[in-house]
Amino acid sequence: MYKLLLRPLFFCFDPEKVHYFTFSLIRSLSKIPGFASISRSLYLVDDKRLETEVFGLKFKNPVGLAAGFDKDAKLYDELSNFGFGFIEIGTLTPVGQEGNPKKRLFRLKEDSAIINRMGFNNGGVKEAVQRLKKNKGVLIGGNIGKNKLTPNEDATSDYEICFEALFDYVDYFVVNVSSPNTPNLRELQEKEPLKQLLNTLQNKNLAKPKQKPILLKIAPDLTDSQLLDIIEIVNETKIAGVIATNTTLSREGLQSENKSEMGGLSGKPLTSRSTEVIRFLSEKSNKSFPIIGVGGIHTAKDALEKLDAGASLVQLYTGFIYEGPALIKSINKEILKRKS
């Protein structure tokens, strides 16, 4: 129904407006008695064989929602009814910010892709915490970043603020230094500033009575040399793992007329590169840390390829928008076929 009826209708309108309209629609429908049960019956694959334990956490299934969809933790409970095993919220910053000027979200229909230059638009970490206090069992990842106006030399402080505010309300953390839409942010992926940032957060983590997994989200545009640095940094700082990958700045092979819009590209054009990065990290590190695979998952086959390449879990974003919630069920069903 989604691909035949809803998607053609949604794709007639501005993508950012549709995003907020969809949020309102899901929230309203979820208030109708029985809607949540119907959603779960349609899309949730409830099978113990899908349970996956990674970095000390037990996931009901290995298919999650990537950060950027529910930035402000407004809909994590309702979205979990579509069959996701976990929801990643954010990217959150210490202070709420509008993000970049509109128009800043673009569909590339011919390429089954999206370009966004949102710029960490969010209401701030404190507002999200108030919503997360109501969580009744959804496994949540907290994706954290810095405010646009915070200079890089002070960026660590922004990550610390978000880390402390969210600590009691998320199950794992994601350090986002790989978005292309905050000026100079990707400079924090360089070896020394990244080690300093991760060591600072890890020291805070180790001072807690019970630690939370910290992951690093990386760009697909890193060179092999930079990826080797990432492996060294992860092992040295002893963070829990890596999310591979964020959006790309590459525009290679695109067909859509709006392909030259500035911002990060996600969707099918990223499928192969994301899987290559996962495989490289897994092989070169001798599988020394878990990887969450994200980027261009539009079919169950795409997800299985990332798992085969070395990912322990996968996440959807653009594929969820193009294919709908049936994709989650499809992936989990294919994973179960392998276990039977």
UniProtKB/TrEMBL annotation:
Catalytic residues (positions): 179 (nucleophile)
Location in the cell: Cell membrane; Membrane
One protein family per Pfam: DHO_dh
Gene Ontology MF terms in the entry: dihydroorotate dehydrogenase (quinone) activity
Binding residues annotated for FMN, in chain numbering: 67-71, 91, 143, 176, 217, 245, 267, 296, 317-318
Cofactor remark: Binds 1 FMN per subunit.
Cofactor: FMN
UniProt EC number: 1.3.5.2
CDD domains for the chain: DHOD_2_like (cd04738)
Protein name: Dihydroorotate dehydrogenase (quinone)
